[in-house]
Specification:
4 copies of one chain form a homotetramer. By secondary structure, the first copy, chain A, is an alpha/beta fold. Chain A is 29% helix and 21% strand.
C-alpha cells in the first residue's frame, strides 16, 4: 500500500479552493494537512458551511517555510500576481506545486502584455503547462505545473484534433459560454443575481486574456499560427462551460472519426455522437466533445465543469501524474445529474 | 380619430397567441373581436389564467367564413401546415392576414425541401416577408404577410448591414441562443425543467430549418450567395434570444459606424456601444445590436425577445403598416427589467 | 380632457425607481418632469440601459425647492432615513408625495424600536398608509402617503378578510417567499448569483422588520391583537412574492366564499379557485389570493409582484387616488407570462 | 476484508434509480450486478448519458427469479402499485429489499384510503419504516424496508425532537418547498420549464398524500395525535428540499439546545445556528436543521436533498444497516457547492 503524501491548499476560501478540498478529502493517497489563504481566517467549515461535520481545519496565513516543511505538494489557488510571489518562495523551499493561476501559463512577453510585470522570471521557463492529454510526460517530471484556464482547456481539447486539417488562412471563432462560478466569489454588479438571471451577454469579446493563451498553446503543440477570435459569455447557471469552435477545413473529412481516433486512449475525453450539454460533465473531470461539418465549415462543441476540469480536478490529475499515481486516482467522474 | 379595425387571433392558446392578445388589448386602433383555435376551447382566461379579470372571450373553433365576416385582419398563430390550409380559405373570403408560421416565408422549392408539400401554391408568391426594416413598402400593400421566424429576424438584422463588406468566399457562422419559450408550450423531454435548468446545449447544429430562410433572404436582399452555418442552442431562460454572427470582412472598416449609419432611421433597432444582453430587449420589439472586429474577423451580436420581435410584436408592426398606422402604434417598448 | 400633472421620481437609480419611471412614461395624466437621486448622475438611460431610445433625462441631485417648484407630486424611492430628511423639506415646500420607504409607515415608538430615531416627528402623524383597499378615502385627502412594504401588502391582503373569524389566542404564521429584486440593487454575498441560484433559505426568521408593520396595521384596521410570526425567504427568481398565511379559525366556515365577498368590488384583487403562482401577477398590480381550510386550520396564499404591487404600481395607484383619477389609470395589468 | 454483496436496482431509468446507481458504483461493499426496469431497455448509459464511459449494463426487464438468484439485496425504485406486485414475488424468492415507493410505508387502512387497494397484505406488516435515526434496530433485522418519502423525511426529522414539548391542541403547519426533480422524469404541463422557471406555487395544499404518512409516524414514534397541515410547493430548482415547521410550544424552552441534545450522536443530522439552505445539503445524505421560537411560537427549518436523503442515499444507508456495515459506508457527504 502506498503511503499518503502530505499536501496543502493555499487559497482555500474561494470556489476552486473548496473544490480542491472536496477532492482531496476523498483521495486515497493525498493527505490534506494545511489549508491556507493570504490572510488568516476562520475554520474552513465556517467559510464553507457545507463542510460542517467533515473538516474543521483552521485557515492559516500562508507561510512558505511552514507549508514546505509540512507538505510535499502544494495546490496554489490564489489570484494571479499574488500567486507568483508565493510560488517563488515555495519553490525556493523545495516544494512541488500545481499553480491554478495564470502566472506561469504564458511566455514572458505574452504574460506581461496581458497581465502585469512578471516577478518570477527565473522559474517561469521551468513551468510545465498542465494539460495532461498533451504534456503528461513533462508533467511527471515537473516541480511547477501551470494549470490551464477553464476557457483554454475546453477550447484546446476541441481544437487540437483538427489543427492538421484546418485552413489557417481563415480565422477561428470560439463562442464560449461559462457558468457564473467562473467569475469568482467576489460580489460585483455583474455577478448580482438580478443581472445574470434570465439573461445572457458576452464580455470582453475579441479581447479576453484567454485568447493569447489558446493561440500560444496551439502554436507550441502544432507549430501553426492561427488567428483565434474568442468571445466569452456569462450564462445564468452556476457551473459548467460550453465552448463552440468554428473554423474552415481544408478538405471534407470525416470529423467524428478523426475525433474518435485522436482521443481513443483518453479516459477523460468522451467523444459524443449528439451535441454535448453541460449537465453531463458538471461535477466531473470529463470533457465531452462533439464535431460536425457542412461542406468545409467545421463546428466542434466541447463541455467541461469550469471549476473541475477547468481548474481543481485537472489540478489533482496533474498532481497524480507528478506523484506517479494512476491519473484518475480520486478524480470525480459522476455528474451532478439530474 | 381613427375608427377601430376588428381583428382576430387564430391559435390563441399558444405563447405567441397570448402575446398577440396582450398587445392587441392595449392597441388603440385594433379591436380584438375573435380568439380562435383549431379546436373549440374554454374561455381564454381559463387557458391563460393571467388574463383573469381582463378578457374572458370564449375560444372558438376557427371558421374562415365567420372570421372573415367579423374581422378585417387576422393574426394566424398556428403550427406550419395547419396554417396554410386555413390561410387559403381566409384569403378566399377576402381577409388580410399576418401569418406567424413558416408556411409563406420561403420559395416553394426550399419550403418543400425543409418542411412538407405546399398546399397553397397559388398564394405563396403573393406573400410578403414581414421584416419591416427591409420590406415596409411591400408590406403596406400586401394581403398576406409572412412573419419571419425568431432566429432569422435576429440573424438578418445583425447580418444585413455587413453583406456589402463581407467576404463571401468564407462561410458565415451563426451561434444562436434561445429561451425555452421558443420551443412552444408542448411538453417534451427537451422542455422538462430538469433537462434545461443549469444546462445549455445546441440542437440540430448545421441543419436547422431556419438556416435556408436566412440564406434565401440574404440572397433576395443583397443578391449574394453566402454559406450560412447555423447552430442554435437552448438557454435556461424563458424568453429572449442572443445571436452571435461571425464572418470575415474584405477590409478593416469601422464596423460600429457602419451599423449606426445603416440603422440611423430605424426606431426599433438600437445600436449599442457595449455587448448586448437579452434582458434589455425582453418584453419589447427592440433589436439591440453590437459589432466589433479584430483585423478582418467580424463579430456581431444581436438580441431580441423571441416571442415579441421574433413573433407577435413584429406581427403587429406589420399589421400597423398594412393599415397605414404609425409603425410603433401600440407596440411594447418597456423591457421586463429588472 | 384632463391636463397633465407634472411629477418627479426621487431615487431613480434603483429598481423601484425604474419601475416608477416605466409606469409614468405610459401614464396618460402624469408628466414625468424630473428624475433625481441623492447624488447627481448620468442620464437615466445610461443607468438603466433598457431605457435607451425612450428616455434620456439627466439624473439630478435631489433639490427640494426645485422639485417642489417643477412638480406637483413626488414619488420618493429612497432608502429609509434618507427619505424622511428629504420628505420633510419637500412638505415644507408644499409638495404632495408618495414615500416608498419605511419612514412614515409606523407609529413613532414602533419605528424607533425597529429602525432608527425619527427625524420628522411633525409630519409622521399626518401620513396615511397607502393600502388602497382599506384607506382610499384617507389617501384621497393626504399630502403624504406612506406606501406599504411588499411583505405587508401581500400579508395584509391575505389576512384581513379573516381577522373577524380567526382565533386570536393562536399565533399566526406567515411563510413568505420573495424574489431577489426585493433585496435591492446593491451587491452583497447574499445577492451573488451563486448564493441564490438553485437555493432557498429564510433570513431574519421571527425577527424581520416587516412583522411589526403587519401587527400594527392589523390592530389599526381590526382592533385586534394578533401574534404575528413572520419568516421571509429569498427565492431564486428575480421578481414576485408568494405569501402563505397559517392561522386557526374559530369556526369551520366557507373560506373561499368569505374571500369572494370581501373583495367583490376590488379590481386589483383576484380571488382564485386554485393555488396562486407568482408568474400570473409578475408585471402587474394584481394581488391573487387563494384560501383553503382543513377543519379549523386555515391556509391563505397570496401572490404579488414585489416591485409593483409591493412598491411602484401601488404608489401610482395611490397617486391616482390623490389626484382623483380612476384608480387603475395607467396601472399595469398584463403579466410577464409566459 | 469483507466480500462484496451482489445487489440489483429495479427502476433504473428514473432519477432515484440513477442516484442509486451512482452511489452503488462507488460503494466498497455492494456490487451492482443488475439494473432492471418494468420493460427491457437500452444500455444504462444511453438512458443516462452522463454514465458514458462508466457503466454500460443493459437494462433488463425485471424478472423476480433471476434477480433473486443473482443478487442478495434489491433496491426497488418503481412507482407505487407496480412496486408491491414485484416486491411480493421477490420476497417469495427470498430476496431482501429496500422499497423506495409508498407501498409499504403505511398501515393498510391509511394506504388504501390515500392510494389504492393493497395487493400484498401479507408482507405489509413485516415492513420496517426506513428512517434510520428512529428505526435502526428494526432495520437491521428486516427483509423489507419501506424507504420514507422525501417530504416525511425532512418533516419528521424537524418535528420529532419537539413532540414532547409541543401543544397538541394546536395544529401543526408544514410549509414545504421541493425541487422539481421530486416530480419525476415524466413530462407534464407542471414540469415544463416555462411553468416552473421564475415561478413558485403550492399544489394539493392540505390534501397531499404525504400528510397522513407524517401523522401516522408521529403517532407511532410519540404516541401522540397531532393535526398536521401540509402545504407543498414546487421551487424553480432541480434538487433540494426546504421544510418549515410551525407549531406552538407548551413552554418557552431553549429550542436550539433541545435540538442539539436530541441529535448529538447522529452523523447525518447537522444542527445549525443560522437558517439552513438547500445548497449545503444538495448532493449529500445530510439533513440540516435550524430552530427558533418567539414566545411559544416555534419555527423549525430543515433541508435535505430530495433525491438522496429523501430517497436514494437513505435507501443505501438502510441497506448498510441491513448488512451490518457502518451506516455511512459509501454515502455521499460532499455537497454540490458552489
Amino acid at each position: 500500500m502506498k503511503s499518503k503524501i502530505p499536501v496543502a491548499v493555499v487559497g482555500a476560501s474561494g470556489y476552486t479552493g473548496l473544490e480542491l478540498i472536496k477532492i482531496l478529502l476523498s483521495h486515497p493517497y493525498f493527505d490534506l494537512k494545511i489549508v491556507a489563504a493570504s490572510e488568516e481566517g476562520d475554520s474552513i467549515d465556517t467559510i464553507h458551511p457545507s463542510l460542517k461535520g467533515i473538516l474543521n481545519l483552521k485557515v492559516k496565513k500562508a507561510d512558505a517555510k511552514e507549508i514546505a516543511k509540512k507538505s510535499e505538494l502544494v495546490f496554489l489557488a490564489l489570484p494571479h500576481k499574488t500567486a507568483m510571489g508565493f510560488a517563488k518562495e515555495l519553490l525556493n523551499e523545495g516544494a512541488r506545486m500545481v499553480d491554478l493561476s495564470a502566472d506561469y501559463r504564458l511566455e514572458l512577453e505574452v504574460y506581461e502584455k496581458f497581465y502585469c510585470p512578471h516577478e518570477d522570471k527565473e522559474n517561469l521557463p521551468k513551468a510545465v503547462y498542465g494539460l495532461p492529454e498533451f504534456y503528461r510526460k513533462e508533467i511527471a517530471k515537473a516541480d511547477l505545473v501551470a494549470n490551464p484556464g477553464c476557457y483554454p482547456t475546453a477550447s484546446l481539447l476541441a481544437l487540437l484534433p483538427f489543427l492538421d486539417v484546418l485552413d489557417s488562412s481563415y480565422p477561428i471563432f470560439i463562442d464560449a459560454k461559462s457558468g457564473v462560478s467562473g467569475a469568482g466569489k467576489k460580489c460585483s454588479e455583474k455577478t448580482h443575481f438580478v443581472s445574470i438571471n434570465e439573461n445572457i451577454f458576452s464580455y470582453n469579446p475579441l479581447s479576453h486574456r484567454h485568447a493569447p493563451e489558446i493561440e500560444e498553446k496551439i502554436f507550441k503543440i502544432s507549430g501553426k499560427n492561427f488567428h483565434i477570435n474568442f468571445v466569452p459569455h456569462l450564462l445564468p447557471v452556476t457551473r459548467g462551460m460550453l465552448v463552440s469552435v468554428y473554423g474552415v477545413l481544408r478538405d471534407e473529412i470525416d470529423v467524428e472519426a478523426r475525433l474518435r481516433e485522436f482521443y481513443k486512449d483518453e479516459k477523460f475525453v468522451r467523444v459524443r455522437d449528439f451535441p454535448v450539454d453541460i449537465k453531463s460533465t458538471a461535477g466531473t473531470n470529463f470533457c465531452d466533445i462533439f464535431a460536425k461539418r457542412d461542406k468545409k465549415a467545421l463546428f466542434v462543441s466541447s463541455s467541461i465543469d469550469n471549476l473541475l476540469r477547468g481548474a481543481s480536478s485537472q489540478a489533482v490529475v496533474n498532481a497524480n501524474i507528478m506523484c506517479s499515481f494512476a491519473e484518475d486516482t480520486g478524480i470525480p467522474f459522476l455528474a451532478y445529474v439530474p
